[in-house]
Write a structure and sequence with these properties.
Blueprint lengths: L1 H62 L7 E6 L2 E14 L2 E12 L2 E13 L1 H4 L8 E4 L8 E3 L4 E3 L7 E4 L9 E5 L7 E2 L3 E3 L2 E5 L18 E3 L3 E3 L9 E2 L18 H17 L5 E2 L3 E3 L1 H5 L3 E5 L3 E3 L2 E2 L5 E6 L3 E3 L4 E2 L7 E6 L3 E4 L2 E16 L2 E14 L23 E5 L1 H4 L8 E10 L2
Parallel strand pairs: 5-8, 5-27, 6-9, 7-10, 7-28, 8-11, 9-12, 11-13, 12-14, 13-15, 16-18, 17-19, 18-21, 19-22, 20-23, 21-24, 22-25, 23-26, 24-26, 25-26, 26-27, 27-28
Antiparallel strand pairs: 1-2, 2-3, 3-4, 4-29
């Protein structure tokens, strides 16, 4: 009996040992599983932080396509956006391509997300797009808004600055007629292509030479969704295309002074953007900019009222845009010029922009209502506006006619020039679109 008892005891000991071993293994496995789950959760949160870094960078690029500062160690959800680095890949009139690398951290876990985006001007501003960029783009006001250019001192583009003229960005309905009328005294000329949603009528007296375009009114091609009528074969220097099927984009929908909701959204948005740049960028009422203010500007400056520029600034520095909730007025022969190849100014008014006097502007002008001339003016850059208008103090005389026509006297000299170098500086605060080319986790 004793051997059998010893065997039973030995068996019991072995069973207990196996139980202890299995229990220890189970505890170790449970601990490992818990740690693995924790590590997985930390990795997920680190990934979320990295994604948030990309999203914040895109938000900054939508305000300023040339923003490259990035940021480091930004708290997010208990973790950190450890770093965001931006690299410009290309810059053309069609847009700016930027690579964004964002690293998120949570606990000991790190995750990296990479994205590539293309930031572009609003399509109406950059039409016809591609390498050509913008020009002088006029949406047209009203349902039957014809535009007549007839003054001899109106020049759109020149031999050094080919400038497209675009007319009609209100939508598929309401075609308009663009008329370019020359007489023995009045010789307007467009050095560039013409694009219109409606009809084109070019009248040039035969056998007569003028100070600007001679017997040619358009030094370029003409594209129209309607018909094209020429008084002579020499009226245009290029070729013309009727029933062209152009899809001219709408004027930026966010800029509409007639819509109370959009108007308030405009004010709220630019208040927030301007204040994000710090003090001196937001003005709660009308503001007249001093020479010192105009000389060195960076970022977005929002005037919740009328913005007045009455100084001559002939060599400004920095990249900046002045935004007005009502009007922008350039008075007293005001000038905004620069010799700095990295400097640019944008002018954005929710309502009219008035150019009164012998004004010169290097920059991109976006006008939510009517761009009005009351004197000589030269613009270099690009223009996008609802209409070309008449300053109420200057009625009559030779003019750009129509609902959105611009009145100016024969003694005035209006030159509207497209400058690709200025256009490619993408002033901050204008309407931009962001397209994500790709977005992926890389580690």
């Amino acid at each position: 009996m004793r051997p059998e008892k010893g065997q039973a005891t030995l068996l019991a000991v072995m069973v207990i040992a196996i139980i202890v071993i299995l229990g220890t293994a189970g505890l170790t496995l449970a601990t490992y599983s818990k740690r693995a789950a924790s590590s997985s959760a930390d990795g997920t949160r680190a990934y979320y932080a990295a994604e948030a870094g990309v999203e914040r960078a895109i938000a900054q690029l939508k305000v300023d396509p040339l923003w490259r500062d990035g940021f480091t160690n930004v708290p997010f959800g208990g973790g950190t956006i450890e770093s965001v680095v931006l690299t410009e890949l290309s810059r053309t009139a069609a847009g700016v391509q930027v690579k964004i690398e964002s690293t998120g951290k949570y606990g000991k876990a790190r995750k990296k997300v990479e994205a590539q985006v293309t930031v572009s001007y609003d399509p109406f501003i950059s039409y016809p797009g591609g390498s050509q960029g913008g020009g002088v783009n006029i949406a047209g006001k009203g349902s039957n808004d014809d535009l007549t250019i007839t003054s001899s001192t109106t020049v759109i583009g020149d031999s050094n600055h080919p400038t497209n003229l675009v007319f009609g960005g209100r939508g598929p309905a309401s075609p308009s007629e663009l008329k370019i009328e020359a007489t023995s005294k009045d010789r307007p000329v467009v050095y560039g292509n013409v694009y219109t949603r409606g009809n084109v009528n070019v009248t040039v007296p035969g056998g007569q030479s003028g100070s600007k375009g001679g017997s040619t009114a358009v030094v370029g091609d003409v594209w129209a969704n309607g018909t094209i009528t020429l008084s002579s074969s020499s009226a245009i220097q290029g070729v013309y295309h009727e029933n062209a099927g152009l899809n001219i984009p709408h004027f930026p929908a966010s800029i509409d002074p007639t819509d109370a909701v959009k108007r308030q959204q405009f004010i709220d948005y630019y208040t927030k953007v301007a204040q994000s740049y710090g003090s001196g960028h937001y003005f709660s009422g009308d503001h007249s900019f001093t020479s010192a203010e105009l000389q060195n500007m960076n970022g977005v400056y929002f005037v919740n009222g009328k913005a007045t520029i009455a100084q001559r600034c002939r060599d400004y520095a920095g990249r900046a845009t002045i935004v007005a909730a009502t009007y922008i007025e350039l008075d007293n022969n005001a000038e905004l010029q620069t010799s700095d190849p990295a400097a640019v100014r944008g002018l954005l008014s929710l309502q009219d922009t008035f150019m009164r006097g012998n004004n010169v502007v290097d920059g991109v002008i976006l006008c939510g209502d009517t761009l009005c001339f009351n004197g000589s003016a030269t613009t270099r850059g690009a223009i996008a506006t609802w209409g070309i208008g008449v300053d109420s103090s200057e009625q009559g005389g030779h003019r750009w006619q129509g609902t959105g026509g611009c009145c100016h006297r024969r003694s005035w000299d209006v030159k509207l020039l497209y400058d690709a170098a200025i256009f490619l500086l993408y002033p901050p605060g204008l309407p931009y679109t962001v397209k994500v080319d790709y977005w992926k986790q890389v580690s």
